[in-house]
Amino acid sequence: MSKFLDRMERIALAGPGGMGFGVVRTEKTPGMALIGLVSGSYAKGLATVAKLALDAALLTGIDNATGLKRLEKSLPSAPWGVRISSLTEDSAREFRDGGCDLLAFSLENTAASALATDDAARILYIEADIEERELRAIGALPVDALILPMKDVSGPWALADLAAVASISRRVDKYMLVEVADAPSASDLEALRNAGVDGLVVDVAAVGADDLQKLKSAALEMPRKGSNRRGRASAIVPASVFPSDAGPQREEEEEEEDDDI
């Protein structure tokens, strides 16, 4: 299992406060994962990820594993990976051999054989206007998480923005990540978590260090959510696939009548 997925599982199970069921942790566990998107000035961006102790780093603009060699001294101890426009079985293996713990890709130009192993977290980029049939099909793919770009949102999040996120998060049983252009406020962060978001992808070059620090603090101090954040698989099944007559309920009623005799 990848280190990133292990981290996501710890966050999902423990929640804020660093306490999982029957488990004592020495550090706070955030209510949501923060992934630093790094493009261009890799050394500076990766240093920011390390300084703020973000949960992972996602590098863009690196097309092959050879491009990682010049970054060896800058790579953080936190899980890191790359977003690539084209992924084959060979390139996926080379990236994993190079130390990648995350591989982010799109449906197009990605070979099915590239996802045959779960040595690295397999993260699929999708769009907000994805069709229902495609979203249903994704549930059967060897994908661990989804990234939904919401970079058009600036300032406070509107109810319509949250609805766009929730309409997807409630229909898939994958970790839901949202890519943002600005750091949400603490209240918006909690609203996103309640809408089914498990993590944010934030461009560390576009968001100032102070805002990133505030975002990190807000994730750590986020109130614990009482209900289970996972378990969305049943939401994807439309009610129309079930028979209109409530068979199980009638059986229970018949059993109750037998008991009364």
Structure write-up:
With 261 residues, this protein is an alpha/beta fold. The protein has one domain: TIM Barrel, CATH 3.20.20. 33% of the residues lie in helices and 17% in strands. The protein is built from eight helices and ten strands. An eight-stranded parallel barrel has the order 3-4-5-6-7-8-9-10. Strand 7, helix 4 and strand 8 form a beta-alpha-beta unit. The radius of gyration is 21 Å and the shape is globular. About 15% of the residues have low confidence.
In a few lines, what is going on in this structure?
The chain is α/β, with parallel strands linked by helices.
What labels would you give this structure?
single chain; 261 residues; alpha/beta; 8-stranded parallel beta barrel; 8 helices; globular
- Major sheet strand order: 3-4-5-6-7-8-9-10
CATH domain fold name? TIM Barrel
One letter per element, helices H and strands E, the order comes to HEEEHEEHEEHEHEHEHH
The portion of residues assigned to helices is 25-40%
Distance between the termini: 56 Å
Strand portion: 15-25%
The appropriate CATH architecture is Alpha-Beta Barrel
Topology readout:
Elements: H1 3-14, E1 19-20, E2 23-24, E3 33-38, H2 42-51, E4 56-60, E5 80-83, H3 89-97, E6 102-105, E7 121-125, H4 132-138, E8 145-149, H5 159-169, E9 175-180, H6 186-194, E10 199-203, H7 209-221, H8 247-260
Parallel strand pairs: 3-4, 3-10, 4-5, 5-6, 6-7, 7-8, 8-9, 9-10
Antiparallel strand pairs: 1-2
